[in-house]
Predict the structure.
Amino acid sequence: MPVYLFNTAARHKEEFQPAHPGKVKMYVCGPTVYDYFHVGNARAFIVFDILRRVLERRGFEVTYVQNITDVDDKIINRARDEGRNPRELAGEFTAAFFQDLEALGCRRADITPRATEHIGEIIDLVSQLVERQHAYLVDGDVFFSVDSFPDYGKLSGKKINELESGARVEIDERKQNPLDFALWKSAKPGEPAWDSPWGPGRPGWHIECSAMSMKYLGENFDIHGGGVDLLFPHHENENAQSESLTGKPLARYWLHNGYLKIEGEKMSKSLGNFRLTRDVLKNIASRNNYQVLRFFMLSAHYRSPLDFNPENLEAAKKGFEEFGHTLEKISCLLSLSKGDHGEEPDEEAEKLKSERQKALDDFDRALDDDLNTAGAMGHMLILANTVRQLMAGRPKQMTTIRFQMLEKIRNDLLDMAGVLGIVPEIEELTGEVKRLILARDEDRKNKRWKEADEKRHHLVSVMGWIQDDLGAMGYTASTTTVKFYGEQNQKPDSNYLPSDLKKKKEDS
Ligand SMILES: [Zn+2]
């Protein structure tokens, strides 16, 4: 099945075909390490993490490069404000970036080059641009000349004259065209600087991505990704300076994820509504906190804007926890039964078999259609729901066929969740819990209601298993409604009587 991706450069969905069959070379703009990254950045990192997993699932060998911008005005300014060494500050936030990335359940890129370790490559690229008259020197600064690249604006679809009039507001007299941008900045006192043919200085931002992506992936690699906020000017400039030299677009497919809004507003320093990823994760009260955040992010198409607000996050938490519980229940059922209650095929098992196949096909089809994670997740949840109904609505006994089907579906659900990076931490059924369930069953058989009830309380308060679940697994005979003491620190109601016992009282 082919994979289709929306290529910003082409303005439509295209069948994805890498330059070299079976191999994908992919570059995604990384962080400027002057602070912890916010949830808007997290969205981009998650989207491209999943793209990588989907491509690998399709059998491609993916080389994923993500840069670290570790020299930049923002780093220098913050270091100066805090009286610190910029290099040390950047080192600290680089370490934090990797930590937070891992906390988000994202796999690290294969290569994570740092700008400061590629100054040689950057100087080389700038020299070539100067030599071929795509760049010019003013007072130790080197600027790229957008007029030297007639296609300037083609990637972002911007009109050059509109851009020029917009840019005149902050005109720098030294530039030939207001849209020209710095490739090399001359050193100011106290700033990090490297020697160059134009005197001591440091690279501008855009040039590092061209230098590092071309070094590791070649002149015309497969996929370049990033948030839509980077499309202009960053990606436009990356492409202009590279294509000026090579005659080829820097990348064959350009992918951009949509904005993440914060409660309906654009995230900005001036509105003070930045949400740092590490704070967001801390505030999600769940042992599955990163899975919940990803579940939320994946609930919209990656190119659509998405609103981050407490209600949406809470809905994601509920949705994800229900999915996690289903997996827990399946595991519980599988560990309690061996499926040794007969071999007869039944309608339910057949139905499950066909629904399983449909869910698997639909899941993959959705992901192949421009990474439709919301659709894929929907198909995964439909399968989980089907199983949940089967477990709740049916029978105390597990046939071999059902057992095998359930085991397969459990593995499918884990596999699907794996592609999306949202495998729940499942509380495996411990030996103690299993013992309690079986002992309680004995108690009930022998009408030791008090003991049975104590065990039930324990199961409910410790494990969060409700009687309905136990019933669905065939471990209680009663179908009575029972209060749920799911909260672990909530004391069970001491006046509570199991309703079958209550019924006895009423009868007598
Ligand atoms: Zn970049």
Notes: The chain has three domains: 4-283, 322-420, 431-507. The first helix runs from residue 39 to 57.
